[in-house]
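Sanity check. The docking grid for UFG depends on where the pocket ends up, so I'm generating a full predicted complex first rather than guessing from homology. Inputs follow.
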Amino acid sequence: MTRLQGKVMVTGGAGYIGSHAVLALLDAGYDVVVLDNLVTGFDWAVDPRAALVVADVADDARVRAALREHGVRAIMHFAGSVVVPESVSDPLKYYRNNTAASRALIESAVAEGVPHFIFSSTAATYGTPAKVPVAEGDPTVPINPYGMSKLMTEAMLRDVAAAHPLNYAALRYFNVAGADPQARSGQSTVGATHLIKIAVEAATGKRDAVGIYGTDFDTPDGTGVRDYIHVSDLAAAHVAALALLIGEPTRSHTLNAGYGRGFSVLEVLDAVDRVTNHVIERRLEGRRAGDPAELVADNAAILRTLDWRPERDDLDGIVRDALAWERKLAEMGR
Ligand code: UFG
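Predicted complex below; grid placement will be based on this.
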């Protein structure tokens, strides 16, 4: 296996996807330092095998000190704000926490000579794709500030990699869901807006119903279609991307991270009913601002490029793992 002569810094490692990447890196034998400001993340979500630095990505002095002290040779950058409707009402928060903070972090990486950078990008960079499944070379026309804030970071990485000895992988996530199959981590976000999280909260009694945001989309059943990817598969893709960056230090990659098939909101809710053996109340509501009808990945590039295969491409399994974590959260009194 390709190994790194130093640690991997995981920003946002106390958050949902970042904490799963930490597990995947540790399980693969990497040394990890988490950098997280704990605004939306939780210190208890960080595996104790990893070091934790409580600091903001934009705090240059703290970040550079941590890069030096821990001998960091790769950064996985998950920290950021992730709620699409909030990005519409408070765009400057997204340009600060996503674009400006990433700019600062990339500058720190260059200043400290960190050679590899993996970035959490998003399918929201495509906006409303002209064709589905959408491929990496298709037009990127974000329809909300969240997508634009991430696309701007992709542009910075491209330019920086051309000018400095740094290579990167930008992974454009589709809809991340589920939880660690061993229930070591999961989505613990307070006030989450993501469909599967909301549905399992309803299934465990945290909410009384699930709203369906629009039934008049141009999709087979009228509800939004998304490509749901298990968070542990996504975390494994990051580890595979890191191995590739180490092995081919002059090349960078922008890759869709999805399974290449879509499920509608109704299909997801049916899966939750099946897995819980319980019928969750559904409320028909209007469309949410900034929601495209259908987003499904063309995942040929990631399958061709990385030594990675989806292992948990199963909607019921994703829901089962999300539900197990939701029950564990309830036991923890959270
Ligand atoms: N939905 C509902 N009810 C809910 C929540 C969601 O009907 O309570 C619907 C949405 O309208 C959408 C689908 O379920 O059709 C999925 O919505 P999510 O909020 O779970 O996820 P999004 O597709 O909005 O967001 C995801 C990622 C973002 C990314 C975006 C790209 O979470 O980071 O895809 O559009 F930017």
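Relevant for the grid: The longest helix spans residues 91-111.
Also worth noting: Residues 82, 84, 122-124, 146, 175, 193-195, 198, 210-213, 224, 226, 265, 288, 291-292, 295 surround UFG (CB under 6 Å).
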